[in-house]
Amino acid sequence: MLKIIFSVLIGIIFVSDACALQSTIMNAEGYACMGEDKSRKQTEEAAMSDAKKKAVEDTITYVSSVTKVEDFEVVKDIVDAYAKAQVKILERKSFWYKDDRAGDCHRVVIKAEVIPDEKAIQEVATKKQTVDNPVMPLQVNLWTDRKEYKSGEKIKIYIKGNKPFYARVIYRDLKGEFLQLLPNPFRTDNYFNGGVIYEIPAGNDTFELVVSPPFGEEQIILYSSTSPLGDLTLKDEGGVYQVKTRERDIGIKTRGVKIKVVEEEGSAAKVDIDKKGKPQASEFFEEKLKVRTGP
């Protein structure tokens, strides 16, 4: 078995070292026309504001439809958390076009990550009926097998989701290099069932995580989604992949919902929607776990 020697986990992992981010990735469109009171820049800004507003509104509709717990207060708390959401633009396409009545108009198509109020959504997660409940928004737990490791010991990583999900697990070492542990050249499947604990390394994996110096603080990063994750640039290192995508682009490229723009006549455009006529959406969950090392 190939041994990949990481300088990991000599020390203690504290719960406070885990950082989770729950969100929904949504396609949305916004529109605005110049009229007599707006400049081109103001029109573009108005179209973007409209797109962000619709992204939040569509997300609330989507989250409400997938959250089917009996406790109405839980659903209300989730909706309230998304009503206070931040909107992060992941991709955008914009078009100017002529409207017969309104004149010069602007349309913007965005892929937006709608991030609910962190404190509010964490309070929802602590309620008993939400734990491992598949009718709640996606949540994937990430943990290790022990709280303390010594040199030469092997580390096990575990993940478990409340519903079926796609996942990518990355290790960031002391040098700032990123290694993708899962999926890897020998364990290519990145789709997992909900309610099942998965172990890394295990199965077809051909590597072990063995504690060795140098010591310091490193990180395990989990990206998960109800849709297939976006592609990264990877280099086969035998049992794992080295991530060649720039650090600042890893999270953005991983977020899996793709905006598909179909050209119409003129310079307008439309976003593909599913068969039910609803905007495409993907539940997303990211968790980061710090690991401290020491002699």
Radius of gyration: 22 Å
Mean pLDDT score, rounded? 82
Overall tally of domains = 1
- Intertermini distance: 26 Å
SSE topology sketch:
Elements: E1 4-6, E2 11-12, E3 18-33, H1 40-66, H2 72-83, E4 86-99, E5 103-115, H3 118-125, E6 140-144, E7 148-149, E8 157-161, E9 165-172, E10 178-182, E11 191-192, E12 198-200, E13 209-211, E14 217-225, E15 234-236, E16 241-243, H4 247-254, E17 261-263, E18 269-271, E19 281-292
Give a structural overview:
The protein has helices at 40-66, 72-83, 118-125, 247-254, and strands at 4-6, 11-12, 18-33, 86-99, 103-115, 140-144, 148-149, 157-161, 165-172, 178-182, 191-192, 198-200, 209-211, 217-225, 234-236, 241-243, 261-263, 269-271, 281-292. The chain is an alpha+beta fold. It has one domain. Strands 3, 4, 5, 9, 10, 11, 14, 15, 16 and 19 form a ten-stranded antiparallel β-sheet that branches. Strands 6-8-12 form a three-stranded antiparallel β-sheet, with no helix packed on it. A two-stranded parallel sheet has the order 1-13. A hairpin with a 4-residue loop joins strand 15 (234-236) and strand 16 (241-243). It is globular and about 75 Å long. The model is unreliable at 5-16 and 259-277 (pLDDT under 50).
